[in-house]
């Protein structure tokens, strides 16, 4: 199951706060499955966008050749990948529409999901990701999943295998051998972002560790660099800042009596958080 390994094929699935019931955390399925950053990279027809898509196709070819595919085979495979991803992009909701929370909230039951995507077994999927107990999820973009369901049967199985294989190597590239790392940076670093040179290996290793083990790493960091004495100094500074602001409120010449009273009441309502978050770790009081 590629999703368990963090490979974003077909769509994205995670847990999130229920947008209409903050007491609940629910499963959520959203559009995804693209190798380029977002839908417009596939759909715009200006010269720059066309050149970028051509560069992406060549990048996929090179990566598949690094896996051992022949030149003509990898060219056909890259074309298949672009075709699938273009279909997914076409069905994707625009970024501007995704800013509207009502447009991305569609809580569906298992029965609803079966109707929406009859060719995709959500029961099998939930079991595979370790959440067979799920009975309903929020589907952010129902139209996207309808289109995806159609593509499941319209696209040849071999093309799906190529698509999945491509996304696996694409996801793993930064941690593979140097030739994969270099080709990955050549496109995702230089072409997409304009970066001139890849970061030193030690920096990439630190970043990878932080992404994978942020909370655990933060706790070790705090134990070493934020001992109780350091926390005490930080709290003393906060108390001093509040005291200084309280004094200012009593002497500011532009404040009238009523405004001063209200401002002081707001200050007194301030609550110090009972924990301090440092580099991903929470320090208890």
What's a concise summary of this model?
The chain has 285 residues and is an alpha+beta fold. It has twelve helices and six strands. It has helices at 40-43, 47-66, 71-91, 95-98, 110-116, 122-128, 142-154, 157-172, 178-193, 201-225, 228-251, 257-268; strands at residues 11-18, 21-31, 107-109, 136-139, 276-278, 281-283.
Mean pLDDT: 91
Class by SSE composition = alpha+beta
Q: Cα distance, first to last residue?
A: 41 Å
**Secondary-structure element sequence?**
EEHHHHEHHEHHHHHHEE
In terms of DSSP E residues, the strand content is 5-15%
Largest sheet: 4 strands, mixed
Biggest sheet strand order reads 1-2-4-3
- How many distinct beta strands? 6
* Number of contiguous helices: 12
The general outline is extended
Describe this structure in words.
- This protein is of the alpha+beta class.
- It is 59% helix and 11% strand.
- It has helices spanning 40-43, 47-66, 71-91, 95-98, 110-116, 122-128, 142-154, 157-172, 178-193, 201-225, 228-251, 257-268, and strands spanning 11-18, 21-31, 107-109, 136-139, 276-278, 281-283.
- The strands form two sheets. The chain has a four-stranded mixed sheet with strand order 1-2-4-3. Strands 5-6 form a two-stranded antiparallel ribbon.
- A hairpin with a 2-residue loop joins strand 1 and strand 2 (21-31).
- The longest helix has 25 residues, at 201-225.
- Mean pLDDT is 91; it is low at 276-285.
